[in-house]
Amino acid sequence: MEEKQRAVERVLLRVPEAAEALGVSASQVRNLIWAGELPAVRIGRAVRVARAELAKYAEALPSVR
Predict the structure, then answer these.
(1) Residue 38, Cβ neighbours under 10 Å: how many?
(2) Using CA atoms, how far apart are residues 48 and 21, in angstroms rounded to an integer?
(3) Cα(24)–Cα(27) distance, integer angstroms
(4) What stretches in the chain show pLDDT beneath 50?
(5) What is the pLDDT of residue 3?
(6) Could you tell me which residues come within 8 angstroms of residue 17 by beta carbon, excluding any fewer than 6 positions away?
(7) pLDDT at residue 63 in the model
């Protein structure tokens, strides 16, 4: 019997994953975090960005005309 694998959608993303989700570089995401524009959490030495914070950040961006 084959065991089904469930894909778990993580709530917290690593910086490179957050960058991929936003379509920018990891350096740009780090700059946004350091500037206080994108909230992040530190767990030990790891920096993580919540998916919900990415959505809020993207929604708050001004549209291009």
Answers:
(1) 22
(2) 13
(3) 8
(4) none
(5) 64
(6) none
(7) 86
Half-sphere exposure of 26 (CA within 13 A, CB side): 7
Residue 15 structure tokens: 């910086």
pLDDT given for residue 28 in this prediction: 98
Q: How far apart are CA 47 and CA 8, in angstroms?
A: 20
In sequence order, what DSSP letters do the residues of 3-54 get, joined into one string?
Answer: PPPPPP--SEEEHHHHHHHHTS-HHHHHHHHHTTSS--EEETTEEEEEHHHH
Mean residue pLDDT of the chain comes to 92
Per-residue CA distances from 60 to 37, 53, 54, 57, 63 (Å): 11, 11, 10, 5, 9
